[in-house]
Amino acid sequence: MPLPTQVQIVEVGPRDGLQNEKQILPTEARIQLIDKLSASGLQTIEIGSFVRLDKIPALANTEDVAAGITRRAGVNYTALVPNEKGLSRALEAKLPEIAVFMSVTDSHSRSNTNRSTAEALATYPPLVKQALDQGLRVRAYLSTVFGCPYEGEVKPEQVRPIVEALVEMGVYQISLGDTIGVTNPLAVQRLLEYLGERVSLDTLALHFHDTRGTALANVLAGLQMGVTTYDSAIGGLGGCPYAPGASGNLATEDLIYMLHGMGIETGVNLDALVEINQFLSNLFQRQLMSKYSISRLST
Ligand code: MG
After folding, report:
1. What is the value of pTM for the model shown?
2. Residue 146 has pLDDT above 90, yes or no
3. Which of 107, 249, 253, 289 lies at a C-alpha separation of 20 to 30 Å from 239?
C-alpha cells in the first residue's frame, strides 16, 4: 500500500502531557501554550480535562483555559470527559469535541478509575449518545492496547471487542494507546490487520509512547497500514508515569520531522514547534525530551 500523502496530528501535550508533569502550569501559561500550538498549524489540540478538580490538579480550570484561548478557524479543540458532569462542563465551554477514555485491561482500569473495563464500557453508550445529540464529535482513548503495567502483554483479541463497541456507540475515532511504550512495528501491523477485519482503519488513530525508543518505527508501521491520525505531545511533555525519567508521549517535533522528510504533509510549521519547546523548557526549567528540538538547539 502506498504511504498516505497527508497525516493528521492530534496534539495531546496540554492534556496528556501536563497531567503527568509534577510542576503545575498557571492557567495563563496553558492558554499561551495552546495559542502557540494552534498558530503552528496543528489542527486538533486537546486543551484539558473535565474530570473532578481534585483528581488532576494540573488540569483544573480547563473552563478558564477554554475561555481564554484564541479560537482559530479550522482548529478543533477537544477535552477529556469522564461522565455527564464533565460533558455539561465541556458544553458550557463550547468545545466542538470531547474524548472519553478507558483501558483494555482491568487492573489498569481499576487503578485509574476504580472500575473494571466492562463497567467503564457500560457507562459510555448513554454519555456518547448525549454528546452526539448535542452536536459534539466524540473520540475515545483506549489505554494499555499493547501492554499493561500490571498485566504485561495484551492480545489483539482483548482489544477488538472494545473497539467494535466504541464504533457502535458512534465514537468517530479510537486512539490506540501504547501506554507503557512496549510495542514494536510487527505487533502494530498484526493488531491493525486483526482490527481491520471488523472495523475501518479510518476510525483508528495511533498513540505511541517512546519509552523504549520504538515510537517512530511504530508510526511507520501504522503509515504502511494506511492509518492517517497520530497523537503526540510537544516536547514529549509528561514523561512516563510508570518509569520516572523515561520518555512517554512521542514528541510532536520528532514525528513531524520524520513525516515531512518522507514527503507527508501535516500543515505544521516545525520551526514554530522548536520555539514552543523552548518556551516550555524555560517554564519547566529543564530541556524537554524531543530529539529534533535538542538537535536544533545545539547546532
Ligand atoms: Mg500518552
Report:
1. 0.97
2. yes
3. 107
